[in-house]
Known about the structure:
The longest helix is centred in the last third of the chain and has 8 residues, at 92-99. The chain has one helix and six strands. The protein has a six-stranded antiparallel barrel with strand order 1-2-3-6-5-4. It has a single domain, classed as Beta Barrel (Thrombin, subunit H). The protein has one helix spanning 92-99, and strands spanning 2-10, 17-25, 29-34, 43-51, 57-71, 76-82. It is mainly beta and 106 residues long.
Amino acid sequence: MTFLAFATVFSPKTGVSFEGSIRNLGLQGLGMFSKGYLEVNSQVEILVTFRNGSGATREERIYGKVVGINVGVDGNTFGIEFNEKIKQEKNPALYQYLHQTPTKTS
């Protein structure tokens, strides 16, 4: 699902952190664009900042690992697989976003 939001990615092992834009979000992972990157298989903590359906700013934390990266001149794209599927109990706002019914346009 297309999902535009900001995120801070942090590697507990190396102490490296950077900000980026989330382009795609699913129950089991996300795709990002950023100037920074971490190696494949790096364990990460992601702080996602976004606006919910009512326009309120929300922050939720997710844990995972880098599963793919494409290093580019203007920035990097990479995929992160979550350690566990997004659940309503742990990430209620992200869960709600992923389960909302798309509105039809005429």
